[in-house]
Amino acid sequence: MDFTTRMTALLGAFRRERNGAVADSMRYYGRTYGLNYGVSLPTLRRLARAESTDHDFARYLYQQDVRELRLAAFHIADPGRLTPDEFPFWGDGLLNSEMAEEGAFALLGRTSSLPALFDAWTTPEAGWLQPYAVLMAVARAEAPQTAWIPRVADIVRRAAASEFQESHLLAQGAVAALVNLGSRSAENRLAVQQAVDSLGTHPAEELVREELSWRLDPDL
């Protein structure tokens, strides 16, 4: 079965689950989708996971201007094939915070290339969507690297200095990443605390400081 036929079948399944109320209530930051059926994320995940892993088909779906197809692509893609040469494709295709979050959940946090992805998507030129996606991926990583701790703080610091409208999202992503990192050991917790102490007084920086004051276990 060719990709177009498979996509049409998957799109039909999504269309049967369309929900205008969900679509109307969606809140995300960034660009809008060309077409949005309002399928809930649990339903979308169930339908996407019914497909077999097929990286090339996932890439095909990711290029369609339909919310459900683009999000499904993250679940159908093969994390083992997310190599550095693919980073621009997936990064440039991110439209908004919902895609960043679902991509982190279904694909980015599961790839062995996460260290390279972290390096590529946390540069000053990366904007806000790619850093947000990789922070959310770090939050889910099974073996996050201690060396990332000061760099996560740098992301928040740069967002504050740049006055990003989405700086609060980056702060929330940083909190999630630092909780995962800091919970690994007493040494990591100390490194997180030192990184947080270096932040300034911008609302995004204060958010990180306040959240981590109670979310990290003091008994580590």
User: Radius of gyration, rounded?
Assistant: 18 Å
Tell me the number of strands. 0
Q: SSE string, helix = H, strand = E?
A: HHHHHHHHHHHHH
What fraction strand? under 5%
Helix content: 55-70%
Distance between the termini: 53 Å
Rough shape? globular
Question: What's the overall average pLDDT, rounded?
Answer: 93
Number of helices: 13
Q: Identify low-pLDDT runs.
A: none
**Biggest β-sheet strands, sense, barrel:** none
Q: Given the helix and strand composition, which structural class is it? A: mainly alpha
Question: What topology emerges from the helices and strands here?
Answer:
Blueprint: H1 3-16, H2 20-25, H3 41-49, H4 55-62, H5 67-76, H6 87-92, H7 97-106, H8 114-121, H9 129-140, H10 148-162, H11 167-182, H12 186-197, H13 203-215
Helix pairs in contact: 3-5, 4-5, 5-7, 7-9, 8-9, 9-11, 10-11, 10-12, 10-13, 11-13
Question: What does this protein structure show overall?
Answer:
With 220 residues, the chain is mainly alpha-helical. It is 63% helix and 0% strand. The protein has 13 helices and no strands. Helix 7 packs parallel to helix 9 (129-140), helix 8 runs antiparallel to helix 9 (129-140) and helix 9 runs parallel beside helix 11 (167-182). The mean pLDDT is 93.
What is this entry, summarized?
This protein is mainly alpha-helical. The protein is built from 13 helices and no strands.
Protein traits:
mainly alpha; 220 residues; 63% helix; single chain
